Inverse folding.
């Protein structure tokens, strides 16, 4: 077995790591200078600067490699693999062993890099971490560091494809309905005018003239006298009573029993009723079965053939597309392909995810058992309608427009595009045609 080589990043001589481990020492400033820092089994950071860790992780060959930190605070960083493991050598051998199971055919992309990251160390998770300065309070720091620009969408797609699987719920936040910010201040306000200037106040209601005023204004020494009609109030229930409203607004003068709790957004200033707040659930994720297969095979596994009515995998969809294109004949009987793009789907909050599921099931309900459905990406569905050509197509498009017009909540837009088979381009290169058709942002 090759000796394990470990990169130590330290201002001075690094710590001893054991007899069978060969150590190369670099100063932190060397990291940006050296273009390739490959062929190491792991790195050990002696300092406490997160910038060093981030600079190292940003290098393609280090995205998935083990990086440990001696400084306890840096070891807690989401991009660190923690403190040095007890049995360092045994730990690294397990990692090397897992690395060897990754196919040499695997193409490097952001997606495969993230999956490799999750695979190499079994305990690794993609997890949201608390970032107090972040407007959403939580951030998937690893995804951001690996170059993912829209984390909620990436997670939705990766989960859809089985690349990743849910591990545990880290936290749930309530977010401003206007800007999505999670820095909210919950306060009692006047239910009539929303003013903040409300105070608890015991009032007296004079039965003779009907005046309702704060108790203090009735006090005359030891007695109680109505300041308006001058009646002496002696017996509660006969002369006067105490209204149940315990608060008064100094702005509008109204009395009320309980203030209304509203959440002021500290980001944009919006005053949200509690029912207008959105919810976000933050989770940790581990590698999923399809992610593992992708790494081992170097490509997406041929999805198991799905029963009619279930969404199929890409390979099955392509095969069916090719086949239908071959046998398509006559405009009245031929097959068609439909693209449904739902733009602006709100993946980031729980309400949005429920909308996505509701939309998918509404669209699913329109399909006949022989139609073939592919979730191309979280926003795009592709449909193969095997028969009845234009009639079936027009009927479906009309039904889809019905969904689009209905109040499914959210501000998304449904775009529909369709073509009738056969098409010569499909016969030439079905995969290329499908990618073009799916990515084209044109609607009918
Ligand atoms: Zn806001
Ligand atoms: Zn008021
Ligand atoms: Zn009175």
């Amino acid at each position: 077995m090759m000796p394990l080589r470990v990169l130590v990043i330290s201002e001075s001589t690094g710590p001893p790591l054991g007899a069978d481990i060969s150590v190369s020492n670099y100063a932190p400033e060397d990291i940006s200078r050296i273009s390739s820092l490959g062929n190491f089994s792991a790195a050990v950071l002696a300092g406490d600067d997160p910038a060093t860790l981030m600079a190292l992780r940003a290098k393609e060959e280090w995205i998935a490699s083990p990086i440990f930190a001696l400084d306890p605070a840096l070891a807690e960083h989401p991009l660190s693999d923690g403190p040095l493991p007890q049995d360092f050598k045994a730990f690294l051998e397990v990692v090397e062993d897992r690395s060897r199971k990754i196919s040499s055919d695997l193409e490097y992309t952001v997606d495969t890099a993230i999956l490799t990251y999750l695979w190499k160390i079994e305990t690794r998770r993609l997890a949201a971490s608390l970032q107090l300065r972040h407007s959403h309070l939580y951030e998937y720091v690893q995804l951001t560091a690996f170059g993912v620009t829209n984390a909620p969408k990436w997670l939705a797609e990766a989960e859809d494809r089985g690349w990743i699987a849910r591990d545990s719920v880290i936290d749930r936040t309530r977010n401003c309905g206007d800007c999505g910010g999670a820095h909210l201040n919950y306060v009692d306000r006047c239910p009539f005018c929303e003013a903040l200037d409300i105070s608890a106040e015991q009032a007296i209601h004079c039965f003779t003239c009907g005046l309702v005023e704060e108790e203090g204004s009735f006090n005359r020494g030891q007695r109680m006298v109505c300041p308006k009609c001058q009646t002496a109030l002696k017996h509660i229930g006969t002369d006067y009573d105490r209204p149940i409203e315990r608060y008064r607004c100094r702005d509008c003068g109204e009395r009320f029993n309980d203030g209304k709790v509203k959440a002021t957004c500290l980001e944009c200033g919006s005053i949200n009723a509690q029912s207008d707040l959105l919810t976000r659930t933050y989770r940790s994720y581990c590698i999923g079965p399809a992610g593992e297969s992708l790494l081992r095979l170097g490509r997406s596994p041929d999805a198991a053939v799905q029963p009619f009515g279930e969404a199929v995998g890409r390979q099955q969809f392509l095969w069916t597309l090719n086949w239908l294109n071959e046998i398509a004949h006559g405009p009245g009987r031929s097959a068609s392909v439909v693209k449904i793009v739902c733009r602006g789907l709100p993946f980031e909050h729980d309400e949005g995810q429920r909308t996505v599921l509701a939309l998918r099931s509404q669209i699913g309900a329109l399909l006949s058992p022989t139609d073939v459905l592919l979730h191309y990406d979280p926003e795009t569905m592709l449909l193969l309608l095997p028969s009845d050509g234009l009639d079936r197509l027009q009927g479906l498009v009309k039904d889809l427009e019905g969904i689009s017009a209905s109040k499914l909540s959210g501000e998304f837009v449904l775009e529909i595009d369709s073509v009738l088979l056969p098409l010569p381009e499909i016969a030439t290169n079905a995969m290329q045609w499908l990618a073009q058709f799916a990515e084209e942002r044109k609607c009918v």
In short: The chain has a mean pLDDT of 87. The pocket of zinc ion (ligand 1) is lined by residues 176, 178-179, 181, 265, 267-268, 270 (CB under 6 Å). The longest helix spans residues 389-405.
